[in-house]
Amino acid sequence: AADKIRLIPQDFLAELCEQIIQHLNRKIPGINTAELCQRIQTSGVDINIGDLAKIANTLSFLFSTAARNNLSTEELVTTLGSGVSTLPKHAVQVIRHVWNEQGKAIAVSEDAGNMATVGQFVDMKWKLGVAMSSDTCRSLKYPYVTVTLTVADPSGQITDKSFEMTIPQFKNFFRQFKEMASVLETV
């Protein structure tokens, strides 16, 4: 990750670090690396989403470990300087600035740590469709529902998961959501 971090311009790196801090503080559900990667690529930097995700995971680990050990800004910078693969100067400056400004706000609790191992639901979209025909069948007229779930995994990476359901499957899915809502109302 240290080699790839050299490619990222300082302003994008600062934005990534700030999003990671916000994610660790549970202010946002995750880091949209796909959107950030596209913006970095548009600026002329040749980086892929896998490399950006590795950088985000590394920085997230760095910030959460620093918070868990209650490191000061200088202790964090000293620790970064003593690493095997040294970070570029602009990256250390960004990390120093973000940690100095926002790092102390990271809340480290056991509950937050346990919740982070599961991931977090962000959004759900659905649409109704009808399959009219296929190569093997001239007239299907088969209704289906496509559901797209947006989920932030434990590291904060936001991904979309899509699946299709028949109408009876969707009715069962809906019934289960209604049951969850009624149980939540009693809490």
Automatic annotation (TrEMBL):
Family of the protein in this entry: Belongs to the COMM domain-containing protein 6 family.
Source organism of the structure: Sylvia borin (Garden warbler)
Protein name per Swiss-Prot or TrEMBL: COMM domain-containing protein 6
Occurrences of domain COMM (ranges): 120-187
GO function terms (MF aspect): NF-kappaB binding
Function: Scaffold protein in the commander complex that is essential for endosomal recycling of transmembrane cargos; the commander complex is composed of the CCC subcomplex and the retriever subcomplex. May modulate activity of cullin-RING E3 ubiquitin ligase (CRL) complexes. Down-regulates activation of NF-kappa-B. Inhibits TNF-induced NFKB1 activation.
Signal peptide, first to last residue: none
Entry-linked InterPro entries: COMM, COMMD4/6/7/8
Upper taxonomic lineage: Eukaryota, Metazoa, Chordata, Craniata, Vertebrata
